[in-house]
Fold these 2 entries.
Entry 1:
Amino acid sequence: MPLLTGLMHRFAREQPFAGLAIAACLHVTAETAMLVRLLRVGGATVSLAASNPLSTQDDIAAALAVRYGIAVFARAGVDRPGYYRHIELALAESEKGPELVIDDGGDLVNTLHTRAVPLLANVRGGCESTTTGVIRLRRMAAEGALAFPVIAANDTPTKRMVEGTCGTGQSVIDGIMRATNTLLAGKTVVVAGFGASGRGVAERARGFGAQVIVTEIDPVRALDATLHGFRVLPMAQAAPAGEVFVTVTGSVDVIGTEHIAVMRDGAILANAGHFDAEIDVRALAGFATAVHRDVRPHVDAYDLADGRTVLLLAEGRVVNLVAAEGHPPEVMDLAFGIEALALAWLALATRPANPPGNLAPGNLAPGVHEVPEDIDAEAARLVLATMGTSIDTLTPAQLSYRESWRIGS
Ligand code: ADE
């Protein structure tokens, strides 16, 4: 992760988080460990809880705790109350509560506003890593319920581009293949949702030789998928045709028993959306006559009354993080690089000493804010440099051409 490694040298010098407590709720992976170390090198005291009950890499959690003395509250397979308890503990790690937060999905921010309200007063701002989290935060902000500024780290063009196709696309296919060892070539793969991540999954599945059907509710995305050569169908029509199903919508009940009732024997169901609500797992359990857990690691077989079986991966939770290791390090290097730079900007700008009228988040209203454009470009430039790729710059003539409206044909 060369970008984070480079930032370690810079943050060690600049100490952007000196004296600050940062509470993070992230997938506890090797890549997250690098981010946590970077924040600490930058002067922060960091506490970490998991952002999903199944995605924790226990060896990484242990290494962070034992080798680096980080307060980690995470264990793979923790139950729902334990999961929220861990978030509360991460928030309570520093006496007054954290000054900065990093969230992945919005559960930490939600906990702060519901079960840890006294700690809110100390929070200066935060960053959110996922689409799902940003959507939840915007809803909170619209209701006037969000108490501090949050940077939508998820929404930068660079992060979207790299995470969607290169990250989700590859790691979801990786999770399905590790869990099932199935051949994708020639199979019909149904991808529900054609956002940046759905597009990534659809493209990578096609790259493996699968015939890909896309389902969408958004006409623009559906048109986009059609014009890129994907067959677009409603889920009711895709259900009997598909052999592998992947939900990436951010919605709920995208696959329900009415769809499962018409699926082929042996259909594989996987979810890549942040929450485990896209496949109606509870209804599936009621619909099935028997459930065989872990027929392979992360694969549960559900027998249906007519003798068919469907296979549910990762209990309907993020398949790329449960059955594989999430986005590869190169992707998280960029994603966390942007997030770390955004957080350092926020820390500097929210210093209590900032004079009034200064365009600084110290004076920035509670709500959801974009990552400053130059941070996105800076991260892309630094990553290109680590790859040994150089790019052109505008000549003075090109610059003035670009800035003038007088020059035409
Ligand atoms: N989200 C997706 N992939 C991830 C990874 N490898 N580490 C942390 N968060 C992630």
Note: The mean pLDDT is 94.
Entry 2:
Amino acid sequence: MNNIDEIKNRLDIVDVISESVKLRRSGKNYTGFCPFHANTRTPAFVVFPDTGTWRCFGECNEGGDIFRFVMKKEGIDFKEALKMLANRAGIQLEPLTPQKIERNERADLLRKILEEAVVFYRHQLLKTDEGLKARSYLQEKRGIKPGTEEAWGLGYAPNSWDAVLNHFKRKGYTVRDIIDAGLLTEKDDGKVYDRFRHRLMIPIREMSGKIAGFGGRVLNPNDVPKFINSPQSILFNKSAIMFGLDKARKAIRSANQAVIVEGYFDVIVPHQEGFENLVSPMGTALAETQMRLLKRFTRRFVMALDPDAAGQKATIRGLEVARGALDHEGDLVFNARGLLHYESRLKADLRVSTLPDNLDPDEIVLRNHDEWKTIIENAQPIIYHVLETLVEGQDIDDPRVKSTIASQVLPLVKDIASPIERDAYRQYIARTLKVDERSLMETSVSNPIKRRKKQKIKGQPSINPPLQAARTSEQENINRIEKEILAFLSIEPEHKYKIDRFLRSNDLSQISLNDFKHTENTEIARIIFDSLSQDKQDPIDYINVHVDLSNFTTEFSHPPLPEDNEKKENAKIRKLEEAARLVMQVRQINTNQEIKELRFLQTDRIDQGNDKSVDKTLQIHMVELIKKRGLLDRALAKPVSID
Ligand code: UTP
Ligand code: MN
């Protein structure tokens, strides 16, 4: 559960509102005079504890959740409201301390140095003799075109101990600044020299595009190590950065798949060749934080790692981490078994592909595009891959080998939720190990399905869930739909206009902040709308910089787009239509709810013996709502069609 849900769960909206509004209980709900406008004689403000919402049916005609109330009442923004309510709920939010602010300022300065270093190294690549040699290596040996080289900001670090040192000193930076940026190495005796010498320079960026450091590859094959990376610093945390994610982000989302490769060039070259959903963890270890980053964009992963034996082991290790990151919050399990357990629930799909002929991904892509496509399409589920790796080079006619391998791979199978999948895996393992399938059944200790059945018999016969739970699930449903709409708009912000035109053609109003009742969603919608009314950045970049999309992108199920261009266009339109339908659907749910709430207020007034003239405004309101519902019902009764 995220902080926002947690706050909503812990705090009673009636408690919070009753501090500033005198509330009178009426059935399950509470009525009062709206604090946001000058009041007439009758209360038009209602709090609904079941849904955790409030609404004013009077002059302001507004409503929302607990956050919206506090923001409006105190005249504060969402961040401040979050702080205030978190405090009240006893939930710890990360504070922005003066130390943190100072650190942020320092990081900005160091990033500025690194951006200048990109320019410096590029100049060296393009304008010096040694640099031009490095450039021809890129073009001739690695198949890198000038446009690619420019897009990735590749450069050349000159073969000098002090070129960078002097360049940045001349620019007025202190030696400390240059060291902290990771461009110099400091010896024990205090002497400093250029960290990167006679190397190809590859800028490493965060997901947002902010620079974090460099990778430097040897040009002279005798130099070691083959790669030098920026040192760990406040900018560069190797295990929290996925190389290429800033450029692969969009493609990963739209393909709903991330291909994980090992090297820098294994990302850059396929990108150039039109395969853009690739990233690299920059080395063999795949850290949990890196997986968390990726998880924001997809839950479908293909690992295309090194073909050699060491690489195979690394792949298995990588898988273990991948599973850990996808596990549910606060209960990380860092092994293959842990995630398999949750794979079906989380809809995570992890596959592994084995690369042929001892080639790296960049080499395969350059050799043959179709071959690469096929390799990725044929990526195997983990269990097959693990089995294959365990069997390799072993004498599987040896009964002890059979039993060792079975004992390693069977626990993985046991945890798979789907009995059909489980059976299929067991059959496969039996065939591979040349044993009778039944002998594998015996080794599996417990069967989750049987357990569940037993519980059902013993457990209470179907008791209706309490009403509260039913209502809450309606709120959850609304929340989910809102997030799905946002997930769509965050990928295709400009499609808002298409949806708006469609809504208008059905006499419905355009998408607005009002369509989002959960304040955290309203805030994201605001950023998406802002992204469309600014012209400094691509809207998607604007959105990515301003909002942490991790809360909802993965909840939006978007099947991969087909390869065929025409089909791809069709699939995009289907998604657009689906988003438009969701907008109408959530409006329908909200309108029905509002009608119910208004009925409640009308009844309450009659009970209180209020005069009819005041009720007239409520009556007009009701007519409007019913008209709106009619339009929505009609529009939703036919298929949504947008072109
Ligand atoms: P590889 O040794 O497989 O290199 O390391 P590569 O990417 O295939 O390099 P090319 O194709 O010969 O240019 C894979 C990745 O591991 C990291 C780098 O990110 C590299 O791309 N690595 C490797 C290091 O960080 N340091 C090293 O010393 C070696
Ligand atoms: Mn390589």
Note: The mean pLDDT is 83.
